[in-house]
Amino acid sequence: MRANRSHRGNRRGHFALKGPRFSACKDCGASHLRHRVCATCGKYKGVQVLNVLAKVEKKAKKAKATKAESGVKN
Predict the structure, then answer these.
(1) Which of 15, 30, 65, 70 has its CA 20 to 30 A from that of 49?
(2) Domain span at residue 50?
(3) Which residues pair with residue 48 across a beta bridge?
């Protein structure tokens, strides 16, 4: 049977992409992707999994070092 426009359209009507699902963190209230660690507080299901403060400090230190190196080269 030939698939005419209406049959094809009915089948393709379910192909739409859906956006990501967000949940609110129980501790800090920030939104995060489901089943992922909260990037704001570093907790997953109420358990501290990630030290966010240490990551931020390490990133700042690395950026500062990179900035200093780029200044020396010029």
Answers:
(1) 65
(2) 21-73
(3) 43
At 3-59, the pLDDT tens digits run: 899 998 888 888 888 899 999 999 899 999 999 999 999 999 989 998 988 888 998
What DSSP element (H or E) covers 33?
A: strand 31-33
CB atoms within 10 A of CB 39: 14
Residue 15 domain flag: no
What pLDDT score does 23 carry? 92
Residue 72: per-residue pLDDT? 61
In this structure, the chain runs to a length of 74
In a domain? residue 26: yes
* Beta carbons of 45 and 37 less than 8 angstroms apart: no
Q: What pairs with residue 43 in β-bridges?
A: 48
Total number of domains in the chain: 1
